[in-house]
């Protein structure tokens, strides 16, 4: 597969290479950015408190919109099947694929709500969030959703969805690739925690 460029680094478009090359950079970015948040101008901060007095409004800015957005994404990511590790004999891969798909709408909405403050510069929270969607989840879903759907359509009424999925000849390959995607999302989650101020900051 031909190499592609991400933030100036050419890598083959594979999940393992994304995990090995992009996720470490994301964690470094998150740690560096977390230390810079106190220096951001007011335009990049969310109003936390407003008092109206005789001398006019007094506004208190508490935290960067970038930190709010990172927290929102962190919560959404960690309360979904998408990041939960399952043994081969547990759960349905279909549930995980559905959870992956839901991350598109959630991420789009959170980035739109956060505004341009999360997309400034060559490296940004928005840049990495969109890379997770477009370079990891989108090709993964494009590859596996139609294949799994075709197999699901062959299930007999008396066979459970779990038993039918386990019998699929491509089941092991899907689960193996799911494991790499989960590793990527786990690294993404750790970086979001650092940026949101709830992670240890170790990379």
What this model shows, in words?
The chain is α+β, with helices and mostly antiparallel strands and 203 residues long. Helix content is 58%, strand content 13%. The strands form two sheets. Strands 1-2 form a two-stranded antiparallel ribbon. It has a two-stranded antiparallel sheet with strand order 3-4. A hairpin with a 2-residue loop joins strand 3 (45-53) and strand 4 (56-64). Helix 2 (65-78) runs antiparallel to helix 6, helix 3 (93-114) runs antiparallel to helix 4 (125-152) and helix 4 runs antiparallel to helix 6. The longest helix is centred in the last third of the chain and has 28 residues, at 125-152. The protein is elongated. The relative contact order is 0.17. Mean pLDDT is 81; it is low at 40-45.
How is the largest sheet built, in terms of strand order?
1-2
SS elements, strand count: 4
**Mean pLDDT over the full residue set:** 81
Strand/helix succession: EEHEEHHHHH
What's a quick, concise take on this entry?
The chain contains 6 helices and 4 strands. It has helices spanning 15-36, 65-78, 93-114, 125-152, 161-166, 171-196, and strands spanning 3-6, 9-12, 45-53, 56-64. A hairpin with a 2-residue loop joins strand 1 (3-6) and strand 2 (9-12).
């Amino acid at each position: 597969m031909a190499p592609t460029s991400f933030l100036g680094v050419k890598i083959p478009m594979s999940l393992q290479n994304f995990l090995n090359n992009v996720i470490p950079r994301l964690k470094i970015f998150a740690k560096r950015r977390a230390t810079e948040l106190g220096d951001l101008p007011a335009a990049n901060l969310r109003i936390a408190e407003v008092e109206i007095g005789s001398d006019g409004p007094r506004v208190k800015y508490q935290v960067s919109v970038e930190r709010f957005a990172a927290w929102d994404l962190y919560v959404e990511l960690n309360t979904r099947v998408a990041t939960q590790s399952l043994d081969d004999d547990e759960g349905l891969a279909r549930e995980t694929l559905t959870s992956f798909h839901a991350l598109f709408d959630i991420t789009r909405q959170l980035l739109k709500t956060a505004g341009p403050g999360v997309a400034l510069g060559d490296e940004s929270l928005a840049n990495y969030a969109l890379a997770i969607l477009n370079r990891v989840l989108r090709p993964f879903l494009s590859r596996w959703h139609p294949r799994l759907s075709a197999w699901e359509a062959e299930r007999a009424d008396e066979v459970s969805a779990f038993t039918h999925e386990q019998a699929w000849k491509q089941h092991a390959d899907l689960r193996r690739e799911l494991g790499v995607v989960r590793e990527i999302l786990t690294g993404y989650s750790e970086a979001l925690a650092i940026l949101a101020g709830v992670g240890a900051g170790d990379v």
